[in-house]
């Protein structure tokens, strides 16, 4: 259970909600969550954080102390504070399942409900979705670079706070990691916990061999030894081998070694030779120390005999691209019971929003599981084979295209309504498997870590015409 996040909201959200309650008390609204730019110049983002959004909205409330605090700001009417005190969720959330590869401009989550309530949800929804989707996306890149080798998430001490460490570990598993060193995350989300030892253990004893022997005596079936405290090849690995032989003689199977500094490619190669010559061909070599997908790709290209990776700060902070700028934009508002599309106009086409209540579809070549593109349509549209679509990519050489011979699958599903909560997957490894299945449907060129090919995302002609009409209306007013 997460803490109540009712006050994790920018002040202007409360100011607007208070104003709506007085001026537009009966209006309904539709807000979309989407992003425009992919981190690390990638092609897509892995959606994550939905389970926490649903849990937070379902349990959203304002207790007496929170109401008293808001009252003390002298900004809000008593009628509005009473609304908050008596709050009951009236919002409906539709969303793409966690683990879905999502492309720019696609609503990965849509919230519909009373205007004042939907406005108050903005900040913490973006906080949960932006952070976890960012880390899941980075984890996917790192685990792809590992080429099938297990990746352990080691980043808690470098994360920006306890929540970032714990929810980041969850997102890392969704993105492809095998385990986490974060015991709280492991307990909370039922994840495998992993770890060896720190250099402090070695330094605490008179010598390295004694440190290894003491560790092996306590953990004879979990003897993974850190070998770079003094000298990897002349001290660390030879001492590890001596302890491994003692363990083997007592009927235990050594796990392996970890290298956390130095020229890891050369050190791993030398360690592998020593281990193999000593008969420990099954002993694993784990590499850590500020790794990311670029370093890991280089190590493996060089032929470094690494079996596992431990990745910390570069993963848990997405250090090379530390922000996912997901946004929460008004798409429609009710007037006299009718939903009226709304638009935010910009000089840039990519910053001009898509109006109205919409649905996102993934298109598959008929008779296959090969995705050929996505289409964003108005909610009341029926997709038909042979339809004309408009490319969302402003640089596309062909803005209009005719599509046919496809099967369309809707990506968003209702996960929360005022009366019901749909079953949202919470098993991180089930989400990871789902994500890998969805990734396998995409073109390989779209999945490249470097210079990925553009995946086509379209809007229907009806949506394009609605957007153009609303832009023209706004220009006419100005």
UniProtKB/TrEMBL annotation:
InterPro entries: Aldolase_TIM, N/Namide_PRibTrfase, NAPRTase_C, NAPRTase_N, Nic_PRibTrfase-Fam, Nic_PRibTrfase_pncB, Nicotinate_pribotase-like_C. Gene3D superfamilies: Aldolase class I, nicotinate phosphoribosyltransferase. GO terms for molecular function: nicotinamide phosphoribosyltransferase activity; nicotinate phosphoribosyltransferase activity. Coiled coil: none annotated. Its EC number is 6.3.4.21. Pathway: Cofactor biosynthesis; NAD(+) biosynthesis; nicotinate D-ribonucleotide from nicotinate: step 1/1. Residues 7-130 form the Nicotinate phosphoribosyltransferase N-terminal domain. Transiently phosphorylated on a His residue during the reaction cycle. Phosphorylation strongly increases the affinity for substrates and increases the rate of nicotinate D-ribonucleotide production. Dephosphorylation regenerates the low-affinity form of the enzyme, leading to product release. This is Nicotinate phosphoribosyltransferase. It comes from Secundilactobacillus similis DSM 23365 = JCM 2765. The lineage of its organism: Bacteria, Bacillati, Bacillota, Bacilli, Lactobacillales.
